[in-house]
Design a protein that fits this description.
single chain, 338 residues, alpha/beta, D-Maltodextrin-Binding Protein, domain 2, 2 domains, five-stranded mixed beta sheet, three-stranded parallel beta sheet, binds glutathione
Amino acid sequence: MRWMWVTMLLWLSAVSGLAHAQSSGSATLDAVRARGVLVCGVAGNIPGFSLPDSQGVMRGLDADGCRAVAAAALGDANKVRFVPLTTTNRFTALQSAEVDILVRDTTWTLGREAGLGLLFAGVNYYDGTAFMVKKSLAVDSATMLDGATICVQPGTSTELAIADFFRAHTLKFSSVTIQDLQEIHSAFLAGRCDAYSTDGSQLAGYRTTLPNPNEFVILPEIISKEPLGPMVRKGDDKWFDIVRWTFSAQVAAEELGVDSSNVDGFGSTSNADIRRLLGSDGDLGRQLGLAPDFAAVVVKSVGNYGEEWRRDIGPMGLDRGLNRLWTKGGLQYAPPLR
Ligand SMILES: N[C@@H](CCC(=O)N[C@@H](CS)C(=O)NCC(=O)O)C(=O)O
């Protein structure tokens, strides 16, 4: 009888030890692995960022950001469930753990980080607020918009940027606030507002979807800084590390000339940065709680940052601008992966 108890206790402690060993130290990573799929909050309706293609496959820079994290965490870039979110419900969806990560054209601001219990893990697109008008309005500068009505979505940093701009130029405006993207587009096209304002990349993407893009002008002023990036909940630092360093690995891969087509060919390279990135040397993957070759899997299946850019944003005809690598005059710069 006594032996039975001892055996049972030993068994219990072994099982709990096992369970402990299996926990990654990140509640989110554990949940993602148990589920076998990453749940990623996106917009789902923005060309270049997240929009289903004709086959229903979610495409874009944000969608690929989700895929990269799935590749890192699960070893499979396709294990992603995309959850479309609006500008107003995006933060609660992340706070309530309805999604594991939010990659939704969301601007990194102090207020959002300090006030919402959320963290930005990087900048996948340096953007800025811009205005679009009909060419027939004969306006070629935002400073000519005195008295204009402006269509804008609620809950966005765009609202604040517009108010600041008009105040700084002592100009007047009235805003028409519309949540739904289709509705705001229809309102703008129907002339309910003189200008439509949002992130410049969104305007450029939207313009390409119009049957007559030449009848629309994006005004030259970029009136605010809108660094967009992936967000996670505060309190799961290991998950934050995974999201931050997965993106950094993609930027580092571009810096190092490692891409999806050549990533398998570096087995005998003597370049120490490439060896660490791909897991041939060092233990970067283990430190993140991931496989040693996590970055190789990410780059092979999703690409480096530049490949993503060319695939997702390139077709919209946007200049890479601030999103070039720092070595090419841009702001994209990977901290050392070592
Ligand atoms: N980056 C700004 C603006 C975001 C924003 O306005 N996004 C719009 C641009 S199109 C959007 O997501 N629209 C799609 C939708 O609301 O369904 C923010 O974080 O507040």
